[in-house]
Amino acid sequence: MSNIRPIFLIAGNTITGTLRGVVLNVLLVLAALMIVASLSTSALDLTAARQMLVDSGLASITVLGALIAILTGFTMIPGEIESRTLYPVLSKPVRRWQFVLGKFFGAAGINAITVALLAVLFFTLYFIKIRDFDIRLLAAIGMIYGMLLVLSAIIIFLSTFMSWIGTIIVSSVIWFIGNYSQFLYDLGNYHSVNETSKLIFQTSQKLFPNFQAMDLRYDIVQLGVPAFEAQRILVPLGSAVIYLLIALLLAMLIFSYREL
Amino acid sequence: MVATASDPVAAHTAAVTPVVDIRNLSKTYKLVLGKEIQAVVDLSLEIKQGETFAIVGPNGSGKTTTMKMLLSLLFPTEGELLLFGRPPGHPEVQSRIGYLPEAPYFYEYLNGRELLEYYGKLCGVPSSVLTKRIEDLLQMVDLLERGADMPVRFYSRGMRQRIGIAQAMINNPDLLILDEPTNGLDPIGTVQVRQFILEQKKQGRTILLCSHLLSEVEAVADRVAILHRGKVLAIGPVEELVPESHQWELVATGLSREAIATIKAAGFSPDVHGDVATITSESQDDIYHALGLVRDNGGQMVAINRPQPTLEQQFLKAVGEDDLRRTVGSLQRSAQKKNK
Predict the structure, then answer these.
(1) d(Cα B22, Cα B173) in Å, to the nearest integer?
(2) To probe the interface with B, which of A92, A94, A97, A256 has the most B CB atoms within 10 Å?
(3) More confident position, A98 or B59
(4) Chain B residue closest in CA terms to A8
(5) What is the interface pTM, i.e. ipTM, of the complex?
(6) Do the chains contact at A90 and B167, CB–CB below 8 Å?
(7) Which residues in chain B have Cβ-Cβ distances shorter than 8 Å to A20?
(8) How confident is the model at residue B1 (pLDDT cuts 50, 70, 90)?
(9) How many domains does chain B have?
(10) Within 13 Å of residue B100, how many CA atoms lie on the same side as its CB?
(11) Could you list the residue range(s) of the whole structural domain that residue B275 is in?
């Protein structure tokens, strides 16, 4: 219990700091405006309107959630080192791994607030327009939250040894590549691509987290699956959990040996 | 580890185990292109329970590096470092330490009370104790009326230093590590910090102090280590580092040129500034002889003093001698290279 308490105290303080800061609030207002704007364009018949709403709504939550995760996450550890707020904390009975986990759970809390607020807005607009509630959308939003958790773990991992600018760039690249995982897979198996390129594409596809597999928009909008099979959810979720754990373990290990 | 009357062995161990035990500690920073900087070189010192120990030294002397190693923020290249008989960084060790960093920065979005609550909870202080302790500490650092409910971003430098002292005390520590505690404080604040240190000393707390203000150190420290370029130049009790004066000093005025010449002819070397002449000697009899000469030649005595050397003078002397040694060494090495 004494090992867990500092983690949640640090997480709580991280969430408080982000909520009382300007960045998250400005981004949330912008995100809300973008969602309202994107959803208000839907017209046409009910089916087309539903497809457009789901597609643009979920895409907005994904992209804006990632943007908020990156912009609030990249300073979490480097910011504490630069401002020296870390020193009084680590002079207390707090282990470095607890600090890293505290920061991750803080990021997870911020992601939860972001996704919850945007989801409430999305569902409200969806209900006003369609007069319906689609349970599949909840699963899709749950998977978006899973993606953001993996992204946050990557950001925390990178920020234990990189500058903040490096963390922003590399985490954005990983996010981008992860969202085009299927494209990389296809390129890696394309017959006219040479062997070296194939190897690069295949390795990249396996090395980076497969965010695309966690995106359920295509299943809902294009394939129109009535309900998700457990496998469709659990397989990408399982690989996301493994990825997240590896990123956090490496972050804790690197930060434990880092000179401050 | 709290020693109790029922456990005399633990009580004895606690009493004889140094609170801080540093043995042959070295820290080398590796730079690019294989270059290295030796921040701390073969440092050994012990701080006993209840002692107020000060580390003084110019910028870059290795004070902060040493403190960071004590807090496990940096790792030694060589040597051993124990706090309460354990390596630094262990939660049991950390829970007995209070640390005030140099120019402390705290979470700007928290107010004074929230900040102390956060650090108190991190230290595992029970909620039943914490609320009262926060109020007492805010009172002690004079932030209860103005500052307790104000976000830290609106704090002045002095207020930040005071809330820093309060957070260092939140866990009722056995060892207080204070890095430049009077940094940025006005004279009243400086006196308050001095009183605070003396009060903690009276309560038997062990204090490790790091400061540039040698007069402050002299007023509160039991022992002092003078650090320069990572090495200990001198270490010992303040009264040993600042030896008792054997000098006598006669300050006189109203002496003519002829009178000064007569005094010089008697074997004295008066230091004359305008109308004031200062005559120094190691012999009290000589000073009285000089006083007779002053009076016989129409001068008046202003004072007879025994000027006490200060820690600052000893510090400058030690650092100056070290710099001189290094310069001579460096010149000799260059000369040897040229000769080769």
Answers:
(1) 20
(2) A92
(3) A98
(4) B122
(5) 0.88
(6) no
(7) 109
(8) very low
(9) 2
(10) 29
(11) 248-305
